[in-house]
Amino acid sequence: MRNAECGLQSCELCPRRCGVDRAAGQLGFCRAGSEVEVFRYGPHHGEEPPLSGTTGGSGTIFFSRCTLCCLYCQNYPWSQQGDGATYAADAFAALFRELHAAGCHNWNLVSPTPWIPQVQQALTRLQAEGIRLPVVYNTSGFESPATLAAVEDTVDIYLTDLRYACETSAEAGSGRADYASIARDTILEMWRQKGPLQLGTDGVATRGTICRLLILPGRADETIDNLRWLSDTIGPGVAISVMSQYTPAFRAPAVAGWNRHISRAEYDRVADVVGTLDFDIGWMQEYAGDAPDELIGFTMPPGSGI
């Protein structure tokens, strides 16, 4: 990926490897074009504590488009329907400058995979100007090894999902039966690159890996399976963030088994296992029942620390 144009001429940024020429106007699965699309951006205080910090917040950029199509996606207006604005190169770089000037602790890129060439181009410009912040790669976990290798020197902190442990759930929920195997390989590569979470003297993350596990209705056992896999395969040093905020959004209200929040019993089963695995650092959202509508598209503040 020497520049944005060459990265788009035969797009293989995600595991789908569509191969379309986005620079010439062709569109692949995610329908991302040649100009960056962003739904919104700004300081965000509801991420994991080492990302949000105590003052400036996480400089979060919600990109439009997504390489998955999860039937319960809370961000569907921009991830699936493409809501947002397009940014030419100068305007996109200015967005990063604005977050830096606002005192944000990091640049938090939410679903950046289709836009990696443009991100790298913008960050190269800013670095030449002496403007730097830790870069957070905030992803579903559906990543290709080539893209992870290409961003190794760009990214400081990986914030990745691990949602399923079996093919049937992954196919039903996100349309990719191979998600679990890909996401597990993804976090292993992220861990190889960045290792455990490192904090500055102010408690804000500077480098490392965080794995989010969203408890899905009827699938608490898969969350437990993934927690045990993380503990056995990587060890207690990987930071975990267990999330209870599942909300039946997008197409989920019409699909049996996906059209409800998780139960208290499901939450408690996961919480019991979390308490036995002795991860060094992590967070678990408190059980909240119905998630308020205003939190759609954002992560609820973590509750009790592990």
CATH superfamily: Aldolase class I
Which CATH architecture would you pick?
A: Alpha-Beta Barrel
Shape designation: globular
Instruction: Give the fraction of residues assigned to helices.
Output: 25-40%
Going by helix content, strand content and strand pairing, the class is alpha/beta
CATH class: Alpha Beta
Cα end-to-end separation: 39 Å
Helical segment count: 10
Largest sheet properties: 11 strands, mixed
CATH topology: TIM Barrel
- Beta-sheet strand percentage? 15-25%
* Strand count: 11
**Low-confidence parts lasting 5 or more residues at pLDDT below 50?**
290-306
Averaged pLDDT: 92
Using only C-alpha atoms, the radius of gyration works out to 18 Å
How many domains, in number, for the residues? Answer: 1
Write down the secondary-structure element order: HEHEHEHEHEHEHHEEHEHEE
Notes on the structure:
This protein is α/β, with parallel strands linked by helices and 306 residues long. The chain has a single domain (4-305), classed as Aldolase class I (TIM Barrel, Alpha-Beta Barrel). Helices cover 32% and strands 18% of the residues. The chain has ten helices and eleven strands. The protein has helices spanning 4-8, 49-52, 76-79, 89-101, 116-128, 145-150, 167-174, 179-194, 220-233, 264-277, and strands at 36-44, 58-63, 85-87, 107-110, 135-139, 157-161, 198-199, 205-214, 239-243, 282-284, 304-305. Strands 1, 2, 3, 4, 5, 6, 7, 8, 9, 10 and 11 form an eleven-stranded mixed β-sheet that branches. Strand 7 and strand 8 form a beta hairpin. Helix 4 packs across helix 5 (116-128) and helix 9 (220-233) runs parallel beside helix 10 (264-277). The longest helix is centred in the middle third of the chain and has 16 residues, at 179-194. The chain is globular, with a radius of gyration of 18 Å. The relative contact order is 0.13. Mean pLDDT is 92; it is low at 290-306.
